[in-house]
Write a structure and sequence with these properties.
single chain, binds adenosine-5'-diphosphate, Ubiquitin-like (UB roll), 2 domains, binds magnesium ion, 49% helix, Creatine Kinase, Chain A, domain 2, 6-stranded mixed beta sheet
């Protein structure tokens, strides 16, 4: 008997018709952000005076009074209903990593019982979704399970469309009754103002005109696509978003023929649809291309203010999934869907920009401004050196463990690559003449000679987890599923802290009566020396670097339970509390959510794998083994010598060995899970990592050896060659 599930799936793929593009009329610039309640929509739906007042309030971070909130809500509803929306929702980002929303209708009954459409300030500003089923890490006990969503006016409301149904979505933060953060957004917003406060003051050393500074983020989203039928035939993809077993196909990415290759037609239609929907929602996606692995792609937008960029990435991940289904495809956002080919990351390009239009990490052309660049540049390096462990922890997860620390790009050791030119500049400042007034002049001359790095952007190191790329830092260790708010919050916070120290350090030196430039350079010089250990220009994959990094005192946390410990340390706690990004209680709660999430992911994977092993792998193996055994008996009965059936007999025995090993490992895995589940959250996660995970690898190893041994028609699970190469 052959296995129908897999073969039917293959047939479905072969018979798949292209799904036509949903036509969008006109140029992108004509429909961009048409579903966003942004500036344009506000102007047409509000009186100019009120519009101005609201803008001023938002810019100053002032709370809106009740009347104003009512007015905005009414304008929003009018706009949304003109666009065909019937419902509204508070849209938020709980610590699950996905977005959540609760829909309510505009429709209601007034006091006389007449049907009306209504949306008032109260409904806009605050809601109480039943929060008890979102992770809270102990911030709420279930009896006081209330979570509240509160409007974030710095990110515009938008209309989300699902099969023709339109909902007005209001971006919100998600907090407990006592105001503690249950989401990624509130800490991000707090880190943003903490950074801004210090950055403005530092800017004012160079330019009095600067009144506002914000962090900028441009993410690059990598993902895999595959046909829905193949996806549905793999329990591991359905349950875990990644393959838990599967023998590498003879061809993977070694020919390098996928990267920047031509995009297959079906995928192209998907990308076009995704881009159109993104553009309508104001997500400025701009570049698309194939990635290194087969069926792997990337999408990147123009960078934006960090809060909006985070929302846009979360929204995009949701869109990616929905639109893939429309095309009978499935998108895999997991960091490592397939063994043996590249995983997916989400590079976070980060910088800071002023309201005077300056990118603070751009060396620019004006030498006099370079001291400002150098200040922000070196302060960032120093901050990362000081808080590398926290940054590492911010991007850790069960799925990202397959990249960081698993011989995959980039490694788990945090280091910074800055390129040859800037290395030379920093070395010259560090080793050059003492910083008296002539020394300062010399350094300024040197700075004047920094070439335009933005144009000459060839100086790259693809192996670094944190790289300076001309006018921004690129955090490469972030994984494809991460909520960008997690690393962005930490980066904003640690740089905010460092800039505060910088100001203090400069002031202390100025007390000696030296010039401002001299004081600044003296501090910069000191920072360069103090943070030197984090800078590394070589090959981050090499064994030699691991040893060198250990000598330099840089940590190498290869798994989530050990990486997450950074949140529990005193150093992190002090910073979170001082910056008000998280209170001590919130840190512990967030840690709890993350560590539990790790355990749950491994638990689900381990259970799914055991089921697949027993339900799909072993039956196929046994069936083939039976055929072989019958064959051996038949040949023996014919009176043929051992030579005639030696090969078959050998296969029977080898299959038996693998069957035994798989069964044993599955039983052991169950036992280890039971033991681990008795422990408290941290110990439990460690037990899953150290005792359960290795057994999953044993199961996989044996299953993957069986796969090529067994009659292809009996194998129940779509194989790598089908998952990665059928289209
Ligand atoms: P790649 O890293 O693939 O070579 P680019 O360097 O062109 O690509 O840009 C990658 C991302 O960096 C894009 O999303 C872009 O918008 C973003 N980016 C460019 N400048 C900045 C900046 N000043 N701040 C934040 N992100 C930026
Ligand atoms: Mg990049």
């Amino acid at each position: 008997m052959s296995n129908d599930i897999r073969l039917d799936a293959i047939k479905s793929v072969q018979n798949r018709q292209n799904i036509p593009l949903e036509k969008v009329e006109g140029k992108i610039s004509e429909f961009f952000a048409c579903n966003v309640f942004g500036d344009q929509a506000m102007k047409t739906h509000m009186a100019p005076k009120v519009y101005k007042k609201i803008q001023q309030n938002i810019a100053k971070g002032k709370t809106l009074d009740r009347d104003l909130a009512d007015y905005i809500a009414e304008a929003m509803r009018n706009w949304a209903m003109e666009k065909g929306a019937t419902h509204y929702a508070h849209w938020f980002q709980p610590l699950t990593g996905h977005t959540a929303e609760k829909h309510d209708s505009f429709f209601t009954l007034d006091s006389s019982g007449a049907a009306i459409e209504k949306f008032n300030g109260d409904a806009l500003v605050q809601q109480e979704p039943d929060g008890s089923s979102f992770p809270g890490g102990g911030l709420r006990s279930t009896f006081e399970a209330r979570g509240y969503t509160a409007w974030d006016p710095t990110s515009p409301a938008f209309i989300f469309e699902v099969s023709g149904e339109k909902t007005l979505c209001v971006p919100t933060i998600f907090v407990t009754y006592g105001g503690q953060a249950l989401d990624y957004k509130l800490p991000l917003l707090k880190s943003q103002s903490y950074l801004e406060e210090a950055a403005i003051e530092v800017c004012n050393l160079f330019d009095e005109q600067v009144n506002k500074v914000h962090a900028t983020l441009g993410w690059e989203q990598e993902y895999f696509l595959l046909d829905e039928a193949l996806y549905n035939a793999r329990p591991d993809l359905i349950m875990c978003d990644r393959t838990l077993l599967g023998k590498y196909a003879p061809k993977g990415q070694q020919l390098d023929d996928h990267y920047f290759g031509s995009i297959p037609e079906r995928v192209y239609a998907y990308m076009r649809d995704l881009e159109n929907e993104s553009h309508k929602l104001g997500i400025p996606v701009r570049t698309r291309h194939n990635e290194v692995a087969p069926c792997q792609y990337e999408l990147a937008p123009i960078f934006e203010e960090v809060n909006v960029a985070v929302d846009h990435n979360q929204l995009l991940m949701d869109l990616m999934d929905r639109i893939a289904r429309r095309h009978k495809l499935r998108v895999l956002l997991h960091e490592k869907p397939y063994a043996g080919v590249n995983g997916s990351g989400k590079h976070n390009n980060w910088s800071m920009a002023t309201d005077t239009g300056v990118n603070l990490l751009s060396p620019g052309k004006d030498p006099a401004k370079n001291l400002q660049f150098l200040t922000f540049f070196v302060s960032t390096i120093k901050a990362v050196h000081q808080y590398a462990d926290l940054l590492r922890a911010s991007v850790t997860s069960a799925s990202n463990d397959h990249r960081l620390g698993a011989n995959e790009a980039p490694p788990a050791i945090i280091s910074i690559f800055i390129g040859e030119t800037l290395t030379r500049v920093l070395n010259e400042i560090e080793e050059g003449t003492p910083l008296n007034s002539t020394g300062v002049k010399e350094v300024m001359k040197l700075l004047g000679k920094i070439p335009n790095l933005e144009q000459d952007n060839t100086d790259r190191n693809r192996t670094s987890p944190f790289a300076f790329t001309g006018n921004k830092f690129e955090i490469r260790m972030a994984g494809s599923t991460v909520n960008c708010a997690a690393p962005m919050t930490v980066l904003n916070m640690i740089v905010g802290k460092q800039l505060r120290s910088f100001l203090q350090d400069v002031r202390i030196i100025e007390l000696d009566g030296v010039s401002k430039d001299q004081a600044i350079l003296t501090v910069i010089k000191r920072y360069i020396t103090e943070s030197k250990a984090i800078r590394f220009e070589g090959d981050n994959y090499s064994e030699a670097w691991k040893e060198e990094a250990a000598r330099r005192g840089l940590n190498n946390f290869v798994d989530t339970p050990s990486a997450l410990d950074a949140y529990l340390g005193e150093k992190a706690c002090e910073l979170f509390v001082e910056s008000r990004v998280l209170s001590e209680r919130e840190i512990h709660a967030h840690y709890e959510v993350r560590i539990e999430n790790y355990t749950l992911k491994l638990q689900i994977e381990s259970r799914t794998l055991a089921e697949m092993a027993m339900n799909q792998v072993l039956p196929a193996a046994v069936q083939y083994q039976n055929t072989l055994a019958e064959n051996v008996l038949n040949l023996k009965n014919l009176g043929l010598g051992e030579d005639a059936y030696a090969a078959q007999l050998d296969l029977v025995q080898r299959i038996a060995k693998h069957i035994n090993a798989i069964k044993d490992a599955c039983y052991k895995m169950k036992k280890e899970r039971d033991l681990a589940n008795e422990l408290d959250s941290r110990e439990c996660a460690i037990a899953y990592c150290q005792n359960v995970k290795p057994l999953m690898e044993v199961v996989r190893e044996h299953a993957d050896e069986l796969e090529p041994m067994i009659d292809d028609r009996l194998w129940a699970l779509p194989k790598y060659r089908e998952l990665l190469f059928l289209r």
